[in-house]
Write a structure and sequence with these properties.
The protein is globular and about 55 Å long. It has three domains: about 60 residues, Nucleic acid-binding proteins (OB fold (Dihydrolipoamide Acetyltransferase, E2P), Beta Barrel), CATH 2.40.50; about 80 residues, DNA polymerase, domain 1 (Orthogonal Bundle), CATH 1.10.150.20; about 40 residues, Orthogonal Bundle (Helicase, Ruva Protein, domain 3), CATH 1.10.8. The two termini are about 35 Å apart. A five-stranded antiparallel sheet has the order 3-2-1-4-5. By secondary structure, the chain is of the alpha+beta class.
């Protein structure tokens, strides 16, 4: 999967754009919310991406922020919403606006966006109600790659256990059992998994 592209903006014709990366031109489709933040043609650009694979095409979508991409991916999970409708939604409302619309259950406002009928709007509100809280905040690609404060070995080990499918209370319990001053992240994970195998 292509996670992001960083290169030179070669073409900008909404909803399509092309980014040249080391002599290769990547064609993307992007919402208007992304286009508003694009530099001039020829300037450096970096976008998060999402690849949609269909029988007849592979389509790469570009997003100015991680929040836009998260919303796009969430929208694709809603039955009856495809990439075209998802792009239309992102073009008609920012991530923050969409979160507010869903929280307020404002069907009328959603139906003003081209391609969104009443039934689709109602389905979006019902299916997105629980997941909209996870959509904010939005970070740009530059912010995403800023050097972060060094994470503690405990914090990294906890995240790794969650990624492996352990529930937070279980991960905390396992790490507590493996706790010892000065252990590396890898050693903490190894000990926690050993403790899990015994329990």
């Amino acid at each position: 999967m292509i996670g992001y592209l960083k290169g030179r903006l070669a073409v900008k014709q909404p909803p399509s754009l092309m980014i040249e990366v080391n002599g290769v031109g990547y064609e993307l489709e992007a919402p208007m919310s992304t286009f508003y933040g694009l530099p001039a043609v020829g300037e450096p650009v970096a976008l998060f991406t999402h690849l949609v694979v269909r029988e007849d095409a592979h389509i790469l979508f570009g997003f100015g922020t991680e929040g836009e991409r998260r919303l796009f991916r969430s929208l694709l999970k809603v039955s009856g919403v495809g990439p075209k409708i998802a792009l239309g939604l992102l073009s008609g409302a920012s991530v923050e606006d969409f979160v507010r619309i869903v929280e307020a259950e404002d069907v009328a406002l959603l139906t003003r966006i081209p391609g969104i009928g009443r039934k689709t709007a109602e389905r979006l509100i019902i299916e997105m109600r629980d997941s909209v809280a996870k959509l904010a905040p939005s970070t740009t690609l530059a912010e995403a790659f800023e050097p972060a404060a060094p994470a503690s070995a405990q914090g990294e080990a906890f995240s790794a256990l969650i990624a492996l499918g352990y529930k937070p209370p279980e991960a905390s319990r396992l790490l507590k059992a493996a706790e010892e001053p000065g252990l590396s992240t890898t050693e903490l994970i190894r000990r926690a998994l050993k403790a899990a195998a015994k329990s």
